[in-house]
Amino acid sequence: MNPLIQTFLSGTWGTLALFGVTLIGCLIGGTILAAMRVSPVPILRGAAAAYVDVVRNTPLTLVMFFCVFGLPYLDIRFGSTAGMNSFVLACIALTAYTSCFIAETLRSGIATVPVGQAEAARAVGLGFGQVLGYVVLPQAFRTVIPPLGSVIIAMLKNTSIASAFNNRELISAMRNAIEVRGDIVIPLLLATALIYLVLALGLGRVFAYLEKRMVILR
């Protein structure tokens, strides 16, 4: 196989690995933050609001710097190799950042669920967690599929920042390819853009299908 193709395949796999792990993490983290934002406990609401306001308004690059350089400085490391450690730290940074946007998107979906449904659930003896998990969140997720898709597609593109922190993904693959074949810089740039375009369009089609099948119109 052509070495350049191997380089781009490796970079694409690195991007997909970062995206997959971060997707799981930010969906969990965003759901927890959204639940805290609507919690009846003032301390939880305040902590979640403070976290979202601070992290969401901080550039992702700074969040990545803190995780990649700040956590090791505090002697917090993951994995036995530098590559694995960088990968996990990049995933943590992307998860911490994207969870804020997921949480705000979900919170807007929670606001669309009629209050009467939650009151009816509480009337039959369900607690706050049960009302949220069985009644509110399933509807909220279905309501916000379109904006949620936009957040996740943006997160896919944000994985490119991880290339500056010793992670193998598409941008780092492109740089390596340019070092080898500096005579075809423009085609290499176009190839990288094309791969991102294909991945983003693929995600867009997935969310378009989910929207058609599941979305709840209010």
UniProtKB/TrEMBL annotation:
It is a multi-pass membrane protein. InterPro entries: AA_ABC_transptr_permease_3TM, ArtM/GltK/GlnP/TcyL/YhdX-like, MetI-like, MetI-like_sf. GO terms for biological process: amino acid transport. It is found in: Cell membrane. Residues 12-207 form the ABC transmembrane type-1 domain. The chain crosses the membrane at residues 12-34, 54-74, 86-106, 184-208. Belongs to the binding-protein-dependent transport system permease family. HisMQ subfamily. This is Amino acid ABC transporter membrane protein 1, PAAT family. It comes from Brevibacterium jeotgali.
